[in-house]
Each structure stands twice: as C-alpha cells, then as structure tokens.
Amino acid sequence: MPAWVEAGFSEYARRLPAAHGIELVEVPPVARNKSVNAQQAMKKEAEAIIQALKPGNPLVMLDERGTPCSTRKLADKFARWEMEGGEIDLVIGGADGLDPALKQRASEIWSLSALTFPHPLVRVIVAEQIYRVWSLRHNHPYHRA
Questions:
Q1: Sheet architecture: strand order including 59-68
Q2: pTM, two decimal places
Q3: pLDDT tens across 101-119, in order?
Q4: Burial, 89: exposed, middle or buried (Cβ in 10 Å; 0-12, 13-18, 19+)?
Q5: Distance of CA 28 to the CA centre of its chain
Q6: Where do the domains of the chain lie, and which CATH numbers do they carry?
Q7: If you placed Cys at 1, which of 5, 11, 24, 71 could pair as Cys (CB 3.0 to 4.6 Å)?
Q8: Of 112, 115, 114, whose CA–CA distance to 130 is shortest?
Q9: Of 27, 96, 31, 21, which Cα lies nearest the Cα of 64?
Q10: Helices 119-137 & 3-15, crossing angle to 10 degrees?
Q11: For position 19, what pLDDT does the model report?
Q12: Helix H segments across the chain?
C-alpha cells in the first residue's frame, strides 16, 4: 500500500483505545493472467479470506451492492456486537469483488456509498468510521453531528 494509506489507517487505529482496537489482516490479491480469470481469482481470494476469519465472529462485507448504513446505525450495530462478544470480521474485497460463495457466509453486506472507491482509500475510510463510531458511542468531541 502507498505510504498515505498506511499513515491514514495507522492514525485512526492509534486513536482507538486498546479494548476497541483494529487488527488489520491483509490477504494478498491473486494475480490474473491467461490461466486465471476474474472468477478464479475471486475464488482463490475467498479461500484465503476464509482462512483469515475468526470462527464465531459476525462476518460483514463491503460491496457496492450492499445495504447503505449511516454512522449512527453503524454505532448501534457496534453496540450490539460489543454486547454479543465484541469482535467482527470486516472484509473489503479485491479489485474484482467478492466471490458469491463468500458473500453467502456474510451476516451483513454494506455499501459505503453509491460511488466506487479505490481499495486503499476504503481501508482509510473504514478505519475512520470505526474511530468515529467509537467517538460517538463514548461522547468524544470528534463526532460533532
């Protein structure tokens, strides 16, 4: 990832208390070529993602065709998850999207926006929103709306 992505993600992750931290697990993209098409790449990426998931955690995926979620609704969801055990697995798909079989495992599928964002930017946006949710839930002045 470019330095600005690492810096942006790290900034928001650093702001969170340890009890509410973010663990970033990167799954390398599968290179497409003449012998590996988009569907095959998504399937291989799905297999690697499944290996990285924590058993029992709710699985939330980001996809452009997912359900939009406001920050306040997201804060409510995080409060519920905290009551149920505290961790979720949040998956940002590869450039070709997410394998349909992997999507079927999801507890929820969210859309960040009707706009399409580059994957590095999504990483920073998600980290910022997790920090914003924490600030909203703990009456921190960061979230002023």
A1: 89-92, 59-68, 108-111
A2: 0.89
A3: 999 999 999 999 988 888 8
A4: buried
A5: 15
A6: 1-14+58-145 (3.40.1280.10)
A7: 5
A8: 112
A9: 96
A10: 10
A11: 84
A12: 3-15, 38-52, 71-84, 100-103, 119-137
The set of residues, in sequence order, having a beta carbon less than 8 Å from that of 102 and lying 6+ positions away, is: 42, 46, 49, 50, 61, 91
- Higher pLDDT pick, 135 / 94: 135
Which residues fall within 8 angstroms of residue 2, CB to CB, at 6 or more apart? 120
Q: Is 99:89 a contact under the CB 8 Å cutoff?
A: no
What digits encode the pLDDT tens for the residues 36-76?
898 999 999 999 999 999 998 999 999 888 999 899 999 99
Of the candidates 38, 94, 7, 106, the residue with the CA atom closest to the CA atom of residue 66: 106
Whole-angstrom Cα distance, residue 39 to residue 51?
Answer: 19
